[in-house]
């Protein structure tokens, strides 16, 4: 992948920003109940217990923290929680809460039993985090009015409500905030069989005929992620309608996925760009994530949250104390011969740069 690629040219179907059409499409395919949710059996069972127990006691359930990579169903599960509790869902996100006052305004509008979904909760400002964990613990916050010696704290009572927090980086949440969540679910990547079922379910909802081998093919190239499975299905549907008779068989699915440069393992252009830069530009590393992101003309977060977890999972990339390193398997996947000892420096480090 070339170094001079411009961000705007980089149309990775995986990294593409969700436009209004994409959002409408995603919403149409969202499971509405825990029973409709495919995969994540353990989380489903645990969450069902939390919700059923709360309903039986006529109490609001404990606060719930959902963590895991993007597109695995955190928003979907938050919506399901509200639906199963027959409670209104209020949606906000960490980046939208930069001041404690932003959160106080949201909390002052909360009604008893509401589910408050805070996406990207790790991106809230520190003062807002502190206000939130007070609210979660005591259903009360002190709103500070004024500045300096004249400032006064006005207590604000909040009716019992449930926070559902979603994060791709649970490790970034301060301990006191993490501790306020009575139930934490770590979402894992989906198995190919689950993705196959998700593709078939979505195809049914879209009235699209997809053969069994085609749905399995799409599922297996979806890098363990339902959002990507649905996105690929959408691209395959385009292909089937324009270049075939509108139905999706194995040949149509393969041709469409090849056209969109999603390889048999599910690597897309961004993944390959990262591996390519790592091997060709930096001799296989170690190299810092920021440098790697610059080399592929992407934001650090995009590389860190979309490409890296998948590449680590495939055993193509290792995080080491000195930076990211390509493994021998990565060199092989690119059709390159690995230098001796490639990828041998594999001491894991959680937050290596
Ligand atoms: N278990 C599942 N079964 C069926 N479809 C699913 C499942 N999980 C997610 N999906 C589908 O995948 C898409 C993405 O899910 P969702 O928006 O909930 O992910 P997310 O984890 O909240 O992502 P992000 O953190 O990026 O917002 C939705 O269209 C949803 O319908």
UniProtKB/TrEMBL annotation:
GO terms for biological process: DNA recombination; DNA repair. GO terms for molecular function: ATP binding; ATP hydrolysis activity; four-way junction DNA binding; four-way junction helicase activity. Keywords: ATP-binding, Cytoplasm, DNA damage, DNA recombination, DNA repair, DNA-binding, Helicase, Hydrolase, Nucleotide-binding. DNA binds at residues 300, 319, 324. HAMAP family: DNA_HJ_migration_RuvB. Homohexamer. Forms an RuvA(8)-RuvB(12)-Holliday junction (HJ) complex. HJ DNA is sandwiched between 2 RuvA tetramers; dsDNA enters through RuvA and exits via RuvB. An RuvB hexamer assembles on each DNA strand where it exits the tetramer. Each RuvB hexamer is contacted by two RuvA subunits (via domain III) on 2 adjacent RuvB subunits; this complex drives branch migration. In the full resolvosome a probable DNA-RuvA(4)-RuvB(12)-RuvC(2) complex forms which resolves the HJ. This is Holliday junction branch migration complex subunit RuvB. It comes from Aeromicrobium flavum.
């Amino acid at each position: 992948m070339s170094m001079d690629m411009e961000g705007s040219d980089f149309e990775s179907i995986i990294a593409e920003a969700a436009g209004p059409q994409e959002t409408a499409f995603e919403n149409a395919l969202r499971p509405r109940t825990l029973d409709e949710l495919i995969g994540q059996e353990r989380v489903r069972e645990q969450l069902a217990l939390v919700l059923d127990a709360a309903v039986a006691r006529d109490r609001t359930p404990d606060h719930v923290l959902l963590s895991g990579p993007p597109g695995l169903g955190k928003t979907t599960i938050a919506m399901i929680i509200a639906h199963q509790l027959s409670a209104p869902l209020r949606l906000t996100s960490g980046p939208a809460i930069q001041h404690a006052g932003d959160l106080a305004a949201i909390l002052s509008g909360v009604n008893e039993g509401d589910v408050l979904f805070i996406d990207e909760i790790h991106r809230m400002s520190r003062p807002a985090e502190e206000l939130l964990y007070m609210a979660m613990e005591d259903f009360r916050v002190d709103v500070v009015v004024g500045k300096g010696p004249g400032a006064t704290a006005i207590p604000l009572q909040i009716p019992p409500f449930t926070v559902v927090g979603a994060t791709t980086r649970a490790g970034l949440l301060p301990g006191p905030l993490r501790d306020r969540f009575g139930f934490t679910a770590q979402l894992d990547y989906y198995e190919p069989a689950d993705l196959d079922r998700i593709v078939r379910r979505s195809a049914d909802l879209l009235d699209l005929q997809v053969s069994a081998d085609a749905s399995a093919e799409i599922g297996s190239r979806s890098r363990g992620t339902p959002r990507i499975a649905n996105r690929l299905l959408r691209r395959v549907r385009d292909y089937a309608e324009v270049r075939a008779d509108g139905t999706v068989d194995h040949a149509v699915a393969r041709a469409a996925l090849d056209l969109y440069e999603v390889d048999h393992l599910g690597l897309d252009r961004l993944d390959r760009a990262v591996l390519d830069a790592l091997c060709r530009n930096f001799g296989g590393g170690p190299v810092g994530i920021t440098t790697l992101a610059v080399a592929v003309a992407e934001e650090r977060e995009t590389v860190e949250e979309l490409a890296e977890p998948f590449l680590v999972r495939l055993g193509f990339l290792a995080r080491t104390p000195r930076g990211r390193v390509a493994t021998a398997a990565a060199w092989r996947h690119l059709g390159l011969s690995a230098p001796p000892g490639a990828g041998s420096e594999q001491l894991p480090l959680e937050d290596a740069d």
